[in-house]
Amino acid sequence: MAQFEQTQGFPAGHGPVVTAVPGIDRVIGRMRALRCARPPVGGAEDGVAVFNRVYLTVTETVRRQIDGGAFPDRRAATTLDVRFAERYLAAVDAEAAGERTPDCWHPLFQYRHHPGVRPLQFALSGINAHIGHDLPLAVVDTCRTLGCAPPDLEDEFDRVGDLLLMLEERIREDLMPGPDLLELADPLTHLFGSWSMERAREAAWSTALVLWRLSEVPLLAEEFRRRLDAGAGLVGRFLLTPCR
User: For residues 128 and 239, is the Cβ–Cβ distance under 8 A?
Assistant: First the structure.
């Protein structure tokens, strides 16, 4: 992964970071490697692998859209997509190394093999962490890399966000129980309906704007980011409440 001026906390300053941005193929390669690295344990699928699978599909779609000219500013779209993916991959690397992960990702790593948690819940918990915490930080990462401000990325953000909505449809198709499991599907349907991708995306954009303005006050920015992380972690833990 490219080295850039970032920690698990909030990146300070508005200036661009002078560093090459890796192509989307590189982060896709990492996700494909993760897909093969975590075999099921005791017959239960790894919860991180569940999220990784749906996120990989969306990232591959974003790459095809960029290559096909769907984004007017190809560099901005690529940078946003890569910086976004890097946040997730950094959390995976930290967990594998036994290091502290962001609070938003902790529930998914902690309960990734819990037999009472369904694949749908793993996917929702990962999406909640990635959009609720990582996406606004990725917008700021991208602005610092390109030397721009969040409003300059709004078109790319909206177009990537539209593709992220594919996650909801894919989850419905792949992870919801079939009609023979209606008793189990009732609580899962309620859980699925309690979290909205569209509202999460809107909140991520608003949060990115706030973080950008707060970067002029680093201590306040970091406190805001910590509370954002903790709140996303709380929601993620709720989404992993065992349903069987």
Answer: yes
pTM, rounded to two decimals: 0.85
Short-list 76, 191, 200, CA closest to 133 = 200
How far is Cα 109 from Cα 233, in angstroms, rounded to an integer? 11
In angstroms, rounded to a whole number, what is the distance separating the alpha carbons of residues 110 and 99?
13
| Residue closest to 229 by CA, chosen among 143, 116, 160, 128 | 128
pLDDT tens for 10-28 read 444 444 333 445 689 999 9
User: DSSP alpha helices (H): ranges in 97-181?
Assistant: 106-110, 119-129, 135-146, 154-164, 166-175
- Measuring CA to CA, which residue among 191, 55, 60 is closest to residue 126? 55
Tens-digit pLDDT profile for residues 155-202? 999 988 888 777 667 676 666 655 544 455 556 666 666 778 889 999
User: Would you report the helix, strand and coil content of the chain in percent, each value rounded to 5?
Assistant: 70, 0, 30
At residue 20, what are phi and psi to the nearest 5 degrees?
A: -75, 140
pLDDT reading at 233 higher than 50: yes
